[in-house]
Structure formats: structure tokens, C-alpha cells
What we know:
Helix content is 43%, strand content 17%. The protein is of the alpha/beta class. The radius of gyration is 21 Å and the shape is globular.
Amino acid sequence: MNSPIPVLQLLVSTALGGGPKHVFDLIRRLPTEEFGVIVAAPDDGPYLGRFRSLGVEVVRLPLNRLSPWTLAHVVRLVRERGIRVIHSHGKGAGLYGRLAGWWSGVPAIHTFHGIHYNYPLGLGRCYLRLERRLSGLSHAVIQVSESQAREAERLGLADPAKSHVVVNGIDAKEVRALAEGTPLSREELGLSAEAQVLGCVARFDRVKGLDLLVETLRRLAGRYPRLMLVLAGSGEGERELRERVAEAGVFERVRFTGPLDHAPRLFSALDLYVSASRGEGLPLSVLEAMACGLPVVATRVTGHVDAVVDGITGFLAPPEDPDELAARVACLLDDPELRRRMGQAGSKLVETRFPMEPMVSRLAHLYRQAAAWGR
């Protein structure tokens, strides 16, 4: 019997979020007799312990910071553990993974969990140039949605021969079990039973558009006196976001839950899910909300357009337009039957279009190909 293929997973964070959850779900479904996974990541969140609970080796490395010493650690790890496939997630991990692969002669795979390049002072152009160079060092580049693949092609971020679409998937039954097993009640969130409740689970970062969501709430506040917004998450932008809430005069209407262990627990307290993001890969939080029967109002950006069928499972609104976002939200607030129908349609769509098994199977196939190439 052949030995398991050693696969090194590199992450920029172990905090609660889509990237770490994606890798966690992948690892626990890969056949252990065929793949031996090692995880290298910063010690900045609960997923470090969750990876260990799967019985895989976990190495703490600050892959979210630039340092030649970190690259040296990755190269040494690859050589000492006999790694045959490197799979990176996130910008810093993608840099280290592909340089280490080139240095060691080991095939490197990189997944884009969103393509974000709107940085000031020309930094965005520098980032795109770097990614184009790194694509030349990649054995494969993975896009998590069809719309992101089109964006990557437009930006020239991957050789078409190396580019693969592996659509994010979720275990809808598991998500619903979490939502129904230990739900957060409105009382626990400080909400009345009569409130109309919007919700969003996100990292507190400008790209997530939470400032636009607050502005949408402000526009609707006069028309809907019982309207509330629940924001679950954390991040470097939290202080600025709280200031924006206060400036908008909606402080009493917003509930900050902090990072939620198992975010689906929140969904039973919501009437609809809203995402005003400026760009996504394929957000797991939106898929999970749909799996739990929530209609979704989202901006018409990469990732969202793959998940939300406009007029069927929710509504899409132009990005950077809180007026249009508010109009779509109002349409659903005014029509409980429409919310129910869209929620049901979304739940069925997730089951058929975004299951977990094809994602795992496709990635396992890419690992086998990469390992065979690297021999």
C-alpha cells in the first residue's frame, strides 16, 4: 500500500472566517489513507485548535507577516516533512507557498478566496504585478466561483492552462443542525419579538461594505421603527465601524455580537440576510444563510452573483448604492410571503448547486495530479 501523500496547507489566519473554515471542512473529508495533511498558520484564532482536533500536525507560523525567516521556515518544513504538494490560502501564504515550492521543486497550488486589489498609492497595481509573477511559479491556481474566475482572467492573474474553478461548497444539513440545535434567541441578542431584523456575518474590513450596510439602515430607519441590524464578526475596522454607526444616529438599532462560534446559530433570529460587500470569492456566510431558509439581499459583485439568483432566492443591488440596497430590503420587509418563498428557493439551490462533496473530490484530484507531476 502506498504511503499517504503529504500535503502542506498554508493559511494567513486561524480566526473565525471563511478561509479557515473552508480548509477545516476540506481536511476532515479528505481520505486519510491517501493524504497526510500538515497545517501551517498563525496562532490567532480558534481554528488552530480545531485543526489539531482532527489529528493533523499543526505548525505555528506568522504567514500573515512578511519575513525572510518565515520563508526559510516554510522551506525547511517542506523538506523535513517530505511535502509533495503545497496548498496556500490568502496573500501572505500564497507568496510563501509558491516561493517555497519553486525553491524546493514541490508543486504549489494557490486558492484565491476573493481578489482584492483596491489599495491606495499604487499598491493595488504592485499587488497585481506580483500575483502575475507568482502565477508562473504555481502548479495550479484555484478560483472558488465562476465570476471570480472571469475576474482573474480579466486581470491576467493565471495562465488558463493552470487555472481551475473549484466552487466552494457547504454541508447544508450540518449547517441547519447547528442553526436549530443551539440557536441564539432574540432575547439573548437584546431584540424584541416584534423587531424586523437584518443580519450579516463578516470580517470588519472595508471590502465587506459594512459602512454601506449601516447607511442602508439609516435610510430605512424612519420608515421601519422596529428595524434592527445584527453584525457578527470582528476585525481591524471595528472601531471605525462603531463610529460610523454613532454618526449615522442608529446606535440603538445595531447589535454587535463579536465573533460567533458557529455563525448559523444566529440565523433563526433574522428576517433576512444582507451583504453589501465590495467583492467576494464565494462567501460561505451567504450560502449558510440560504441553507437556513433566509432570503438574501446582496450587492451585484463577484461571488454574490454566483450564489444569489436575483428575484428568485433574494435580490441583487448595484454596489456602492445604499439607496438601491434599501429599496430591495424594503421590498422583502413589506412582504413576509415573498421572504418565505425566496428562503425556500435559496435552501433548495444550496443543496443542488453548492454541495461539499464535489469540492473535496476536485481538490483531491488536483492533489493527486500535482504529486504525480512532482515525482
